[in-house]
Amino acid sequence: MHTSLKEGLQFLINNYGAIILSSLIAIGIAVLLRQKGDDRRSGGIPGKLGIPLLGETFSFLASTNSTKGCYDFVRQRRMRHGNWFKTRILGRVHVFVPSVEGAKTIFANDFVLFNKGYLKSMADAVGKKSLLSVPQEIHQRIRGLLSDPFSMNSVSKFIPKFDSELCERLKRLEEEGKSFRVLEFTMKDLTSKERLMQVAFDGICDMLLSITDASTLGQLERDITAVADSMLSFPIMIPGTRYYKGMKARERVMKTFKAMISKRRSREEAPDDFLQSMLQRDLYPPNEKLDDEEILDNLLTLIIAGQSTTAAAIMWCVKFLDDNREVQDRLREEQLSILGNKPAGTLLKYEDLMNMSYASKVVKETLRMSNVLLWYPRVALDNCTIEGYEIKKGWNVNIDATHIHYDPAIYENPMYFKPSRFDEMQKPYSYIPFGSGPRTCLGINMAKVTMLVFLHRLTSGYTWTVDNQDLSLERKAHIPRLQSGCPITLQRLDNRNA
Ligand code: HEM
Question: Given the CA of residue 301, which atom of ligand 1 is nearest to it?
């Protein structure tokens, strides 16, 4: 045999393993690239669906269970596939929609081309008449009836009450001199009766139902937390499961609400609150009032939707201000000047909040960076395209608010906490912490008022030290929160009006 041919054969025999491996890799890369090209050409979305049903469920659960939080799952896939990607979680295809254009298309077609996905456990938890479960026509009617009690005008009545409660609690926390978790504002060694700082929860219950009694609040909080935890559980009534505990807790909550309604109807009590504004419509025609089931389910929905979101936003605000002293100083300056212009010891009013222009930007920047609700899920009701990408009927499309809020093309140096970036107006759909369209957050005014009053009292009355700088996120939480709960210790500022 010819020597060079012989050498060639010898080379092939000696290296056949490596040759087969590199050929396979080359073929694999070619297939992947072709698939990617085909995906793009045909409007397909890159991403891995994996095997039917399971898909990437385990990876998603692993991220949710880790201290990096469930958004890490999205981050990793985006690095692999690009900004638009699809995945399969628990048997459903999810497309993460990363753009302002995409958000606009979905929000503008809410209820028409897209709707909230129906989860039995969620509907069972919040109730069939909840805003989160009802079809479009009923949703429109309920929102119409709720818009007045949640308007800035109605919410502003609650400012002095909330302010007074907050001043008292901050004062006691400072006097105790102990570290407490901003997330729940509880000190481990205080009894639950003392409920020093469940401000967000207590504030909402006060505004909706005028509940101020510590033991009723404590029981309600435990029960409503159990209901909220059951929203994403497997809907089977087996004692010990999250779903079972949630359903039992829901029964107790409904019993408490019903007892309050009958007390009000028998004229034993008539406080000026949300519930009373609903009951005053008892004699109105059916389309101008909520029926009892609608009142009950929506009371529960409002507390669930409002409490953990506001509490997490307050916690992030404290953390960001601690990390950015120059912002804290500027905010304190503004708040001290507001305090200085009022007679000593007077409570805040709506007009005072109107003068908090820097604080409003601090709130905005906190909501941009913390992304309390990471993405907003919808289900496509028909085949459609968004920005040329094909979406099939039944797929989940998740408006990725987090990606939009961290997009460097929209926000310069997006990782940098800079409230003054809001000196300029934002382009439509580029700032969406409260969503948009027919399902825009109903509690937007209440959330803003709560945060502004809190920031005023905290910065004009105190300085603080964060006692745990660990950035790990709470496991299994769908709202990003620090695992530590952001414990702080307060020091009183020496000023005459505090
Ligand atoms: C910082 C605090 C809050 C944030 C960041 C927030 C965020 C949001 C977002 C993004 C949505 C829309 C979700 C979607 O489109 O899928 C929403 C809906 C909603 N929020 Fe809030 N929220 C907050 C506080 C509150 C408060 C205090 C309440 C009431 C007491 C409330 C009640 C609701 C309700 C009832 C809905 C559903 C509206 C509907 O489907 O028509 N939220 N919230």
Answer: 35
Q: Per the structure block, which two tokens stand in for 315?
A: 């916690």
Which among 246, 22, 24 is positioned nearest to 127, based on CA atoms? Answer: 246
| Type of residue numbered 12 | L
What is the tens place of the pLDDT at every residue in 351-393? 999 999 999 999 999 999 999 999 999 999 999 999 999 999 9
Atom of ligand 1 nearest to the CA of 377: 16
* Closest C-alpha among 204, 27, 232 to residue 126: 232
Single-letter residue type at 96: F
Considering the four listed CATH numbers 1.10.630.10, 3.30.450.40, 3.40.50.720, 1.10.10.10, the one that applies to the domain covering 91-492 is 1.10.630.10
- Per residue in 91-131, pLDDT tens? 999 999 999 999 999 999 999 999 998 778 889 999 999 99
Strand partners, 96: 85, 398
Is the Cβ atom of 434 under 6 angstroms away from ligand 1?
yes
Q: Check pocket membership of 446 for ligand 1, CB cut-off 6 A.
A: yes
pTM: 0.89
Q: How far is the CA of 449 from the centre of ligand 1 (A)?
A: 14
